[in-house]
Please model this.
Amino acid sequence: MPQSRLSRLSLALETGAVTIPATGLVAVLRPRATTDLSALPRDRVRIIQGFRPDHDAWAAREYVCAVAPEGRYSAALVCVPRAKAEARALIAEAVAVTDGPVIVDGQKTDGIDSLLKACRQRADVPMPTSKAHGKLFVLEAANDATFADWRVRPAAGPDGFRTMPGLFSADGIDPGSALLADALPAQMKGRVADLGAGWGYLSAEVLKRADVTELHLIEAEHAALECAKVNITDPRARFHWADVTRFTPDEPFDLIVTNPPFHSSRAAEPALGQAFLTAAARMLAPSGQLWLVANRHLPYERPLAQVFREVAEVAGDNAFKVLQARMPLAQRHGRR
Model:
């Protein structure tokens, strides 16, 4: 294959910049569903991915998947995420469980240059492989102690909640979520769901209502849900590690709250948030309500009107809007 068509990993392996041991398992940490792993020995690859949509995509391709390392590996590939603290934690985790080379691959827009500089201050790093606005480099002789301070654990965050670096609003309560919490009705009852529940701030606010019989926290990021399990100890809470857009409840919900994501990369993707709205309509009872907060510029009113009978803005400021949608039109189990 021409080098121009090779991924950074394939190019590094072809040129000898990276060598994978002939035996042993290869851990791949946080690969997106679109990551090219074709150059690695498929039967030896172990996917370490806590984000449910990507985890499920790799499992569907019959890769062995887990949410955390299990045992030892002969090599590891770290796919650099956007969050600096999370990227450093992944490197520390990979070094701790790997007996051979730890490969780090990422885009310039995700901070690979600063990460390379930081790693060179702690370990010997050969010349990186540069291609397609990114870099790949190798840590060949790093040890656990070298990167131990880069590890992260759940820690006290805003208002005493436990959070983790790299999670949404890990350093403070998101102002949009706070606006939605203030706008929620004082009287809420029945089965409620929090879509994209994160580490549990909105869920904690909902559970202040005595007439809520069940609250289902549905979250795709495994680490966030684990934090939510620490933060939410109310026996009415139910926890689901799931892709919201594919989740189907056993029974419809009476009310749903959500601060839907609208980024899967650095670029805004309103379609992702819109998929949450469609999923909410599908999960609600015929008389159910959806309460959501969104950045003011996001075009959610029209897609909401396509799946709900009534849509209204009930609160907001210059940055955010709180929308209430009632009586879903979406089909569910044959109903309209």
Confidence is low (pLDDT under 50) at residues 332-336. Residues 84-97 form the longest helix (14 residues). The chain has two domains: 3-150, 156-328. Residues 89 and 213 are 38 Å apart (CA to CA).
